[in-house]
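Model: Ready when you are.
Researcher: Fold this.
Model:
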Amino acid sequence: MKKFYLIMLGILLIGLSGCKEKTTLQAKKVVKNTESGLPLLVAQAFEEKYPDQKATSWKKDDLGYWEVIYEKDGKKYHADFTIEGAWIDTENSIKKEELPDAVKKTIEEKYPDLELVRIGHVVSSRHESDFYDVEFRKEEKEMDVEIKEDGTVITVKEKS
């Protein structure tokens, strides 16, 4: 009787390990929504994160994330997701007047000679709080600066 239980346990373990491989292989395969071309995991993650919003367009960005674009209250938003459907961040453009005073002060003090090109309000899974993505230009050079609500500079990236 003991042999019978051991044999059954062995068969069960072999069967379960086969299921795990199949699930892993399916998860790695990128399934796209046939109607939109958006990867299914990204579409599902967007619908889960923003159930009341409808995507107006989507594209793969320079970092390899899927950027889903939608509108809310007359503003355009860009939500980034990994191919596996993990949410990275959501950004929308704002005007300088909408910035917190501390961020305006940082811009005026640290970057007075640079032309302000664009400002984005960003909510991110990678940061503790919202921040502002500010793009500057001076002649041929561009700079991307991330600034916290309290005016602290997070990162500075120069582009050529």
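Researcher: Now this one.
Model:
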Amino acid sequence: MATAARAVKETECRVCGEDYIDPKILPCGHLLCRDCITSRLSSATEPACPQCACAIVTAEERSGRSLAEIADALPTDLAMESLVESMQVLGQEHSCCVCAAPAVCICLNCLDLMCSKCQTVHQKLTATRYHVVEHVAALTPEGLAGRRPALCCNHGDRRADHFCGGHGVALCSACAVTEHKACHRLGKMEDAMKDADSSLVKLRDKLDGALRQVEETLSHLDDCMREADSSEEAAVVQVDKACDLIHALVESSRQKSKEFFQNALASLKDALLGEKASLAQQRRKLKAQRHLVERTRRRTPHHRLKDMETPLTKHVDGLDLACTLPAHLNVVSLPKMIVDASVIREIEKLLKKMGRLEDGDQVT
């Protein structure tokens, strides 16, 4: 008896089967661990994504580059990286990191689990008094990943309230004034996050539009397939009606005529199926990219959203979003039936003998 396939976790690498470590975004939008990518590159001449079979890298892109360079050139999925870390933190035994008592709270800044007493001390210490602490029971891995506060790139214990677009770093107020005052792209962290989120929303909407177009075109192809099937059935009926006039004589002609229509429509149906398969592949890519963008928008730590904006934009801009059918696939035209002239002559002879056809008349 066949067993049901095991469900794959969102955080599980399709190659090693473990939670992602340094997850890299493939050109198709799916993820693999960095080391799994290098392993796949070294063991296959044409390495492909295990989920959709799209190429990880072309021969031209691979030429003259080491496996590490190829893997490192792929963008890191910061949302998935944060989700895996959050799952590992929440999945461990909930005991206080200080006194080993049952933990009830977690610090979103340093990810330490604490009992209520140690939490009180934690929020009174000078170094951690401004840390954000929440009840651990109320948090999911997704919630923890998306709610962790942005921290200063120079001071890991300070909340970042500025972002330097020129250097791509989150900054506390002191660092913003002392080290990045002259930077032209220095602004509030909140504004930078709004800009990044707005950009990701536009990417999502762009992918949604492309997906809708693919769905509409696939629906149109289904209509064409049904029309082709209907045309084939109608052609067979026409052949049957013509051949049924004198069944004994035209049985072989009937079969030839059927094969003629079936073969004529087979090439069209093959073309429709090929176009449908191509669009289905495009739909899978667009869905993967759309899911990636939306997950990045919702789960990436605020200070890392800007890091994801550029690689994701490049990914989407590099996609083929066009969805135009070749003109010959938009309309199903039925080829004209041609009856063998010798068969017609035989029918005419027989009909004349039967008195069903006068001299000078022809079978039409």
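Researcher: Key takeaway?
Model: Residues 15 and 291 are 20 Å apart (CA to CA).
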